[in-house]
């Protein structure tokens, strides 16, 4: 028996076995993401962080 943090008790593995193995050669989503040059460009380029604006001191 497996007891989770929430107190749930289950028998056997908590993760069900996938009905079919995921094959990267057959998976269209994976192939499109890793072989499309347009997507590869965007994944590499990271925009610079926005400049931090310091709050102006309030004059009283």
From TrEMBL:
Domain of life: Eukaryota
Biological source species: Tanacetum cinerariifolium (Dalmatian daisy)
Name this protein carries in UniProt: Reverse transcriptase domain-containing protein
Region (Disordered): 1-60
């Amino acid at each position: 028996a497996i007891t989770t943090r929430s107190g749930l008790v289950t028998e056997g593995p908590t993760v069900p076995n996938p009905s079919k193995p995921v094959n990267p050669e057959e998976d269209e989503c994976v192939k499109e993401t890793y072989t499309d040059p347009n997507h590869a460009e965007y994944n590499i380029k990271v925009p610079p962080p926005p400049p931090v604006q310091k709050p102006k001191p309030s004059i009283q």
